[in-house]
Specification:
Blueprint (H helix, E strand, L loop, with lengths): L11 H13 L6 H7 L2 E3 L5 E3 L5 E4 L16 H10 L3 E6 L2 E5 L6 E5 L4 E4 L5 H15 L4 E5 L17 H5 L4 E4 L2 H10 L2 H12 L31 E3 L5 E4 L2 E7 L9 E5 L4 E3 L22 H15 L5 E3 L6 E2 L1 H26 L5 H7 L4 H4 L11 H13 L14 H11 L3 H13 L3 H14 L4 H17 L3 H16 L11 H5 L3 H9 L11 E8 L5 E6 L2 E6 L10 E5 L1 H8 L5 H4 L6 E4 L2 H7 L15
Parallel strand pairs: 7-8, 8-9, 9-10, 14-15, 17-20
Antiparallel strand pairs: 1-4, 2-3, 4-5, 5-6, 6-7, 11-12, 12-13, 13-14, 15-16, 17-18, 18-19, 20-21
Helix pairs in contact: 1-16, 7-17, 8-9, 9-12, 10-12, 13-15, 14-15, 14-16, 15-16, 16-17
């Protein structure tokens, strides 16, 4: 069985806490297992999904070890959730609606129409989506894809589209539906802060961790992310309002827009001819994130809860089954309404109680310790913090309303981590004294305090191997005890990188397809956030781009800021260099596909002025670091 080299068994305190979970939680309730297995039709004969180069991007059976009893190195509640998420194959949701589950982090849904099939949320990458479609066709026949629908703007719901659809099919009239604002949010989230999000996502999902009882066992929302490159085909039909109806291949759909919930652009869909409700990612079998550990805009639990109330009002009495793009369906109208109501109450309670407590003067950290969910909600498995958590969601609500500063001036101008760490270690009597005391705390089971204190020693002296080893051991124990899949992953990733060095970042979201979907304004903005400001303080470079068939675009680098102006006028100024070119050429030079010195020799490109100014401009850009340190300075 795979293990993390250098990993330790569970310490007594963690083992006892995990056994208490096994004793106190209602594990005799098997309704979720019955629901997760309901409608199973079969799975793929080959468990390995490969890309065009032959590299494995997903292993369907990597989590087979979850069939055994939960060991002391895992929280039994998370083990149970991961076991449910590892059910893989093709499942009938209701006659005419099918899901492929366990082929990626998300589910791919297929709705049969008059001639073919509508694909909803085609996973993370083309190979997993193609494998899911092949499995569907093996059981339901060679139906063509007659439409694609993206429920929202996160990559696990559109990245595999080229595994089920081609540009030629879209040109031939196959529609691609998405909520209004989808494209803007899909590309901006994955590009502007894409390098940082991808690196942090490597910790959050633990895709590079060994799979096993002492390693990665799941992420709560699903097992992990596949490691293929995501693609994107832009939508051809926007859903712009709640109540909008569309028919694709005879499939009638009624839409509910839910912006600002789990994603900035998201929607739910009711299928009146199937009495079926797709809840996208707005109601799943866990407490979701209000601020994901990989980083994102803070989500609004108040709006989220109100949209769930609206879902119940619009569709509750009309739905015999509710399904989502993660996890398993809920069947029966009464159960559907109860499920949606409890999901609604979780987000509403978090929002309201955090506001109550912050108005009493509690800080984010204090609120996270104080807030307790109502027993009636805690008894429902689907409200547990397998992906989001009460702790970090409470802090997210506080951040949404009050920001990072807690009002205490002692926290207004703190030293950065390394400078603070050196001072702390000196004040505490030196590294050896700190580590001696921390070891005693470790032996007493106070792993939380160990990681807080020893982190200072690691940042003061990252070469202190005793500190790194103790920090890794403490993080590992915290991971073993966590009910939250992403908390377990970040702790185990931290432990592994402290022991063995960086594991790298196995996936990136800024793929060629995603970059190609950027508007020219977004592309320039993506370049602007790469300008090394101090290095460019004294630069003053103005370039006018005469793009065929469009108003001229002027970029100016001045005061370390790259600005853009569309059209003529005083804001554009006088250019140092004017380049007439096709949009494709502009994209190529700004993304680095073509060296600036080679641009002028391209057919149809005309440059007036010093082409060296373009080389100078691009020389002020920094490349993102896809492998920056997290648990060390």
């Amino acid at each position: 069985m795979p293990q993390d080299a250098g990993s330790r068994p569970a310490e007594r305190a963690v083992a006892e806490a995990n056994r208490a979970v096994r004793r106190d939680y209602p594990f005799a309730d098997t309704q979720d297992l019955e629901d997760a297995r309901h409608g199973f039709m079969g799975t793929a004969p080959d468990p390995l999904v490969r890309d065009a180069a032959g590299s494995v991007v997903w292993d369907i059976e990597a989590y087979g070890f979850l069939d055994q009893d939960c060991p002391d190195t895992a929280n039994p509640s998370l083990w149970r959730q991961s076991r449910l998420c590892s059910e893989h194959g093709l499942f009938e949701v209701t006659a005419g609606i099918y899901q492929v589950r366990g082929f990626d982090l998300s589910n791919m849904t297929l709705v049969e129409g008059e001639r073919g099939v509508l694909v909803i949320d085609p996973l993370v990458c083309a190979p997993t989506a193609a494998a899911a479609l092949a499995l569907y066709r093996a059981h339901r026949g060679e139906r063509p894809v007659t439409g694609v629908l993206y429920t929202h703007s996160h990559v696990d719901h559109f990245g595999g589209v080229r595994g089920v659809l081609t540009d030629e099919a879209v040109a031939g009239g196959v529609p691609v539906l998405a909520p209004e604002g989808f494209l803007e949010h899909a590309v901006s989230e994955n590009v502007y802060a894409g390098a940082a999000m991808s690196r942090r996502a490597a910790f959050m999902y633990g895709a590079a961790l060994p799979k096993g009882p002492r390693g990665q066992i799941g992420a709560g929302l699903g097992q992990s992310v596949s490691t293929g490159a995501p693609g994107l085909i832009p939508p051809t039909l926007d859903i712009t309002r709640t109540g909008q109806t569309e028919t694709v291949d005879g499939i009638r759909m009624v839409f509910q827009l839910t912006p600002g919930t789990e994603a900035p652009a998201e929607l739910n869909i009711h299928f009146p001819d199937f009495s079926a409700l797709c809840m996208a990612e707005n109601a799943t079998h866990n407490l979701h994130n209000l601020l994901t550990l990989r980083g994102a805009e803070v989500r609004d639990p108040h709006v989220w809860s109100r949209y769930l109330t609206e879902s119940i009002s619009l569709f509750g009495e009309l739905s015999d089954v509710a399904f989502a793009s993660h996890h398993w369906p809920v069947r029966g109208r009464e159960r559907v309404i109860t499920f949606l109501s409890e999901q609604r109450d979780v987000y509403a309670y978090l929002h309201d109680q955090v506001l109550r407590l912050l108005n009493r003067g509690l800080t984010a950290a204090e609120i996270a310790e104080e807030i307790v969910m109502p027993p009636a909600l805690e008894r429902a498995w689907h409200t547990h913090g397998y992906y989001g958590s009460v702790s970090h969601n409470a802090k997210a609500v506080h951040q949404r309303y009050l920001g990072w500063y807690d009002g205490n001036p002692a926290h207004l101008w703190q030293h950065p981590p390394v400078a603070a760490a050196r001072r702390y270690v000196e004040f505490m009597g030196g590294a050896d004294a700190v580590l001696d005391r921390a070891r005693r705390c470790f032996d007493e089971g106070d792993y939380r305090w160990v990681v807080e204190v020893v982190n200072h020693v690691v940042f003061a002296d990252p070469g202190n191997m005793r500190a790194r080893a103790l920090q890794a051991d403490a993080l590992e124990q915290l991971g073993y005890g966590s009910e939250n899949g992403t908390w377990r992953n970040v702790c185990l990733m931290g432990a592994r990188e402290l022991r063995h060095g960086s594991l790298g970042t196995p996936t990136t979201t800024a793929s060629p397809d995603v970059m190609a979907a950027l508007t020219l304004d977004q592309l320039v903005d993506a370049i602007a956030v790469r300008v090394n400001g101090p290095r460019a303080w004294d630069a003053d470079i103005t370039i006018r781009w005469d793009v065929n068939g469009a108003e001229p675009l002027t970029t100016r680098l001045r005061n370390g800021v790259l600005t853009r102006v569309t059209g003529p006028g005083p804001a554009a100024g006088e250019p140092d260099l004017t380049i007439a070119l096709a949009e494709a050429d502009l994209r190529d030079v700004l993304t680095g596909a073509v060296p600036p010195g080679d641009l002028a020799s391209r057919p149809g490109v005309e440059a007036t002025g010093d082409i060296g100014r373009l080389t100078e401009l691009l020389g002020h850009l920094d490349d993102p670091d896809p492998d920056f340190a997290i648990v060390t300075p």
